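Discussion board: Methods & Data

I've been asked by a reviewer to show the raw model output for two of the constructs in my manuscript, not just the figures. I'm not sure how much to include, so I'm pasting the format here to get opinions. Each protein appears as its amino acid sequence followed by a line of discrete structure tokens. Is this the kind of thing reviewers expect to see in a supplement, or should I convert it first? Here is construct A:
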Amino acid sequence: MGGTGQGMDRALGALMGVALGDALGMPSQTLPRARIAAAYGRITDLIDPVADHPVSHGLRAGMVTDDTEQTLLLADLMIRSPAGVDDRAWAGALLDWERDVRARGLRDLLGPSSKRALDALLAGVPASETGREGTTNGAAMRIAPVGIATPPGDPAALVARVAEACRVTHNTREAISAAAAVAMTISLGVAGQSFAAALDKAMEAARIGATQGAPVGEADMAGRIAAAIALAGTGREDDIAARIGTSVASREAVPAAFAVVGLAKGDPWQAGLIAANIGDDTDTIGAIACAMAGACAGLSAFPTDKVAKVVAVNRLDLDPVATGLLAMRDRRLAEVPA
């Protein structure tokens, strides 16, 4: 992967973070911490899943899952339709993706919120209503393109872009506020900020996000994130798992991802390793955490051999994606009155 300039390095860092965190967590996803320890000891590298893995069976070391594939799917749709996310086009893209996953014989299909919403859309429910029960982390896991493509200067505008991307499947305050915090962190990272410097505005975005969508689920995502960051100061991975939670719920997975980056002191690779061992939704927590860390540290902060392996195994070409999203960001910056 190439590209020039800090913005490109940070955008590639966010996208590569999704893929690397996803790939590190792939062998341990859905498994409790004790099962991870029994199966692998401690995960310290990109590894194959155990042969009887309930979800990752058939994958091999370095391969990505739905987190990365749906992130790139959203990025492609945004680049092709820069005026805004078309609800039906997005729903169609997700359904086509799931059909392809089934054809490949894989088990990592649409999450519960997305599946319910898309089934409702096919049954004739308006797109504005389909996502009004979606509180899981599917929106946050794939929101990185919105953060890359949207400048951070107008938090309300950024959250509106997030809500638009969430509408079909995750149109709830819990999911939108969680995704908004992640997107703002990534946007600020692309703008040159450190993870620590991005936290206040990330929580501001979460508070704005909590006013969007259906009033369903967690009402204080900013408070949950702040508590998780404080807990990370103790330096104990097991405390995060026990006290914050690591399930697919946005209220657990997203604060846990923030805590993971804090515990890793902003290092993308270390964040991915912590997430891979933390239990339950390891691949998604890893994807979110590494996307934020990658945006704030840049691709140059990643181990080059690990990047090369994930790129090769998945045949990734992230440069055009980063370039397209940054072009959207530049256009939006140019639209801001002087």
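Construct B, same format:
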Amino acid sequence: EGSGGVLREMIAVFGFGVDMRELKKGENQLEDFFGKVKGIAHAFAGAFAIHEIFSFAEAQAHLLDKLEDTAVALGVSTDKVQEFRYASEAMGDDADKLLNSIGKLQVSQQAAAQGSKAQAESFKALGVNVKDTSGKMKSADELFADVAEGIKGIEDPSKAAAVAVKLFGRGARKLLPMLKEGREGVEKLGKEFQALGGGYTKKAIESGAKFEHQIARQGAVVKSLKSQLLVQLF
């Protein structure tokens, strides 16, 4: 029942003597007030929804931009970066842990190519060449699969762990369960990720980069406006 009906019921119960004309006027004003409150509530709800959508888009655009930056840094596709993130999560670890370890593997690769005896011996123990048949440095994903296959062939767990730590750093021990599965295990997780949908598409990543650019442009404009306003204010 409306607000006016509630008022009339209260008056009837308590036996107040009230001018009904004034009561009717009050009812109309009260209903008008509630109507305005509802309008404001709807406006706030709409603004909140827009804010939430924008925040979601901004967060996703930042993630997409990060995916692209990581892909460039490692020299692999954004699909491979997402496969590695999925593999890391599948092992119960942070999504970026595996990517950081692969970055360290590339540092070891460069060191071995430049003559570091310790790193060269580690790769040699796994039967892995840091360069491909054409003499170019192997890509991060190819090298990782080769190293996994090499570690799979080491029966002594302590020796496998020691070699892994030399190539990947201290976080290598958490990678051992995956590395012990060899190339097949690495490829299996990649295929599993693709079967689940493959994550963000190339088009989505490109759109995210454009959105990030527009956000940066907008931020620059707002700062310029603030600067002019502050000059006047000061």
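Answer (T.O., handling editor elsewhere):
This is acceptable in a supplement if you add a one-line summary per construct. For B, something like: The mean pLDDT is 85.
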